[in-house]
Amino acid sequence: MWCVFCERNTSQSRSVEHIIPESLGNKEHILERGIICDNCNNYFASKIEGPVLSSIHFQNLRSRQGIANKRGTIPFEYGIFPQAGIPIALRASLDQGTSVGAWHEKDDARFVQTLMGIGKGTFLVPLSAPVDERLLARFIAKIGVEAYVAKALEADITVDQIIASEELKSIRRFVRRGDWPEKWPVSRRRIYHEEAIFSEGESAYQVLHEYSLLVTDEIEIYAVICIFGEEFAINLGGPSTDGYGRWLSANGNRSPLYI
């Protein structure tokens, strides 16, 4: 048993790996124990997934959608109170409505004083915010590699064969070590609203996340991941998304997830 990323023995590893983090609502898409070692699992959680999911963009998304973390806590939503010049935190509750407070404890007094001293004010809450591009690329690449591994295992391809594959060596290193190449571009666009409701027969449902693999006519393999309607596509074989752009143009810009 060898780890797909660091290639070390995993016979003593105990943790399973969530292809998409639990903090995005994933309970189903899991790689069994031994495919990713405990060290890599912990590294991804603290150095890649944690920083990305705690960014304002994803934290506010998780808060709006009521997605709890492993401890069952829904994160605060970040905003700005212009009249006080401070960041604020909003938390929605089905029982108590929405509560608002200063983001930083040191601003509590200023928040209350400003609130009590004005007749009308404004809270500004961003629907999107920048995410560190390199961390986001490693985050999407990690999901993409693991999605590929899951599909390969279903097709009776072994972990040894995956590790030996020259095509995945660069992106596996980029995910685990992040030291090369300097950039690994990710195609990013919105393909449906984050609160879109889909129907199938008499059932209606919301899509939290979905993913698939695309093999283009140019023999490139792309992992295509959608998180609450935002599509991310990454080339598993090399740092370029030009081929994905050409594929989209040839297919009316429809997502591979829906063809």
Question: What would your notes on this structure say?
Answer:
The protein contains seven helices and eleven strands. With 259 residues, the chain is α+β, with helices and mostly antiparallel strands. Among the domains are: 70-117, no CATH class; 131-258, no CATH class. The longest helix has 22 residues, at 133-154. The two termini are 36 Å apart.
Residue share in helices? 25-40%
User: How many E strands?
Assistant: 11
Question: What's the gyration radius in Å?
Answer: 21 Å
The main sheet comes to:
4 strands, antiparallel
Mean pLDDT: 95
Overall geometric form: globular
Poorly predicted ranges: none
How big a fraction of the residues is strand?
Answer: 15-25%
Strand order of the largest sheet: 6-11-10-9
- Topology as a string of helices (H) and strands (E): EEHHEEEHHHHEEEEEEH
Summing up helix and strand content along with how strands pair, one would put the structural category as alpha+beta
Count of discrete alpha- or pi-helical segments spanning 4 or more residues: 7
Termini, distance in Å? 36 Å
